Amino acid sequence: RNKQLRESKRAKDGQPVRCLPEELPRWRRRYICTHGWTDRSRGQGVRPQRQIRSTACPFRLTAESVYIQGSWRVEIRFPVYTHNHALLESVYDNYSHIRQVPMCEPLVGDLRLIVRSGGKSLRNLRVYS
């Protein structure tokens, strides 16, 4: 993003451009529902599909880093908070990727702290290297 800002028309005209600090991991991140993907056809339609996750759910939001009153903050932009499917805990718990956190996520450090402190709400939580 900083490269884009430095090459922008505003920067080329000599006007000041505020670049993102290096410690901010991302400038913008979009979040969508796990059912929000459009499903592409991969076969000839010979075998019936039993489990279809894609419903083209419209839920989405964009988290963006903005500079407001002397500090960097996260602002939610373009939110659509509606789902086109039932929100059931039993359905949600069946997805294996929901129960996993990639080791590169900043959340992993917090999870390790919860495990060490014996958090009772997360009894089945394990952190694997």
Please explain how this structure is put together.
This protein has a three-stranded antiparallel sheet with strand order 1-2-3, with no helix packed on it. The chain has helices at residues 2-6, 9-12, 89-93, 107-117, and strands spanning 28-32, 60-68, 71-80. The longest helix has 11 residues, at 107-117. With 129 residues, it is of the alpha+beta class. It is 19% helix and 19% strand. The protein contains four helices and three strands. It folds into two domains: 20-94, no CATH class; 100-129, no CATH class.
Annotation keywords:
3 strands; 129 residues; three-stranded antiparallel β-sheet; 2 domains; 4 helices
Global shape? extended
Helix content: 10-25%
Query: End-to-end distance, in Å?
Result: 31 Å
CA radius of gyration is 21 Å
- Total beta strand runs: 3
Q: pLDDT average, as an integer?
A: 76
The number of helical runs is: 4
**What does the largest sheet look like?**
3 strands, antiparallel
- Which residues sit in consecutive blocks of at least 5 with pLDDT less than 50? none
Beta content: 15-25%
Question: Number of folding domains?
Answer: 2
Structural class: alpha+beta
Strand order, sheet with most strands? 1-2-3
* Topology order in helix (H) and strand (E) letters: HHEEEHH
Quick summary of this structure?
With 129 residues, the protein is α+β, with helices and mostly antiparallel strands.
Fold topology:
Layout (H helix, E strand, L loop, with lengths): L1 H5 L2 H4 L15 E5 L27 E9 L2 E10 L8 H5 L13 H11 L12
